[in-house]
Amino acid sequence: MTPVDIESLPHVVVVGGGFAGISAVKALANQAVRVTLIDRHNFHTFQPLLYQVATAGLEPADVAYPIRTIFGHAKNVRVRHARVSGVDRERDVVTLEDGTEYSYDYLVVASGTVAAYFDIPGAKDFSMPLYTLANARRLRNKLLRTLEDVEVASESAPQQLNFVVVGGGPTGVETAGALSELIDIAMRRDGLRIDPENVKIYLVDVASRLLTAFPSRASSYALKHLESMGVDVELERSVVEVEANAIRFSDGEVLQARAVVWAGGITAVGTIADQLEETSGPNGRAFVTADLRIIDSENVWCVGDAAAIPQHGDPTKFYPQLAPVAIQSGRHASQQILRLLGGQSTQDFHYVDKGIMATIGRRAAVAKIPHVPVIEGTLGWWAWLGLHLFYLVGFRNRIRVFINWTWRYFDWPSGPRLIVADAETAR
């Protein structure tokens, strides 16, 4: 059998190594195409668990996996660790920040999103987002360093310690619950000498209830459980400014805060997806057709959080920016490329809804699964654990995370509460 000259095969460039990009490349691995995956990191991040890294529940290595290792056995896949600066659709070229150009026959843009600050003064400068592994590590250092500093200062006078989490979606709810547990365990197990009465965690959101994508029953459960953990939930409150050590609301109240965690939303504005078309969709996402190609394009797809994917049956609405949507859309885009190469027409994208989940601390979660009543409490937590382990990349990661979670379920151990950072970023 004559060996295949990989360089002669049609070239597919995939921009982004998140859920959508990895899924797209997996569908192309060992197929009759040449694939180049470009990402600014050399690892894939399991973003739903970043809050656990930030609150010292997991190590960074537990939620990240080298991209090259994922595709190490796929001879037709190459990985380039670099940042993409632009896409020239007329020339069919992707340009990197260092000036290198990659020509493509087909392009899949899975560039993801970034934190959305909604033009709120100071939010970008003084709050801490939780969207990348670097964000999570920085936030963990900040939280642990703050606890250390407050303990020392408390020797002279009582210190009020306020943490504020902005955003009542899954990330905000999960972070607030995990932060409450972190502070509790640091006091009980690590001997942190801080008066619990002087420590307060606030979760604020402009909406009238938490977890608006969930049924109201799940929202009520989340609110009740967070309040039982000592979290002060303040709904229908609009943040208008973030300062170095404070947050300001629309009613004029100023709340002092040692750290502000920003979980207020995401946007594709400023990303590569935002540059693909003259008119972008909601939150900067690229409009795509039913088969996930961008408008008026024959060879460029956009998938995952970067794309405004029309819902099947109602093109005026778009699918939510969730990991299952990203995984399924990335796979679908690659399948359409293979269909075109095989002389077939493309097919429309049909999303299979597998439900949404959010954990609210140890042993508590809510899960909304199609055709099943809302699952709460311990059963919801096990369902959440199983789903996340299923999607976690890498057998080694699954084993480590499962051991950590199981141990934490029965008895919270002395976990990775380590301040590991360069001197200039430790505070």
Question: What distinguishing features does this structure have?
Answer:
alpha/beta; disordered C terminus; single chain; 27 strands; five-stranded parallel beta sheet; globular; FAD/NAD(P)-binding domain; 427 residues; 3 domains
List the helices and strands and how they pair.
Blueprint: E1 11-15, H1 19-28, E2 34-39, E3 43-45, H2 50-54, E4 64-66, H3 67-70, E5 77-81, E6 84-88, E7 93-96, E8 101-103, E9 106-109, E10 114-115, H4 123-126, E11 128-129, H5 133-153, E12 161-166, H6 170-188, E13 199-205, H7 216-228, E14 231-235, E15 239-243, E16 246-249, E17 254-256, E18 259-262, E19 266-267, E20 286-287, E21 300-302, E22 307-308, E23 310-311, E24 314-318, H8 323-341, E25 356-359, E26 365-368, E27 375-376, H9 377-391, H10 395-410
Parallel strand pairs: 1-2, 1-9, 2-5, 9-21, 11-18, 12-13, 12-18, 13-14, 20-22
Antiparallel strand pairs: 3-4, 6-7, 7-8, 10-19, 15-16, 16-17, 23-24, 25-26, 26-27
Helix pairs in contact: 1-8
Q: How does this structure look, described?
A:
This protein is of the alpha/beta class and 427 residues long. It has three domains: 182 residues, FAD/NAD(P)-binding domain (3-Layer(bba) Sandwich), CATH 3.50.50; 147 residues, FAD/NAD(P)-binding domain (3-Layer(bba) Sandwich), CATH 3.50.50.60; 58 residues, no CATH class. It is 30% helix and 24% strand. The protein has a five-stranded parallel sheet with strand order 5-2-1-9-21, covered by helices on one side. A five-stranded parallel sheet has the order 11-18-12-13-14. Strands 6-7-8 form a three-stranded antiparallel sheet, with no helix packed on it. Helix 1 runs parallel beside helix 8. The C terminus is likely disordered.
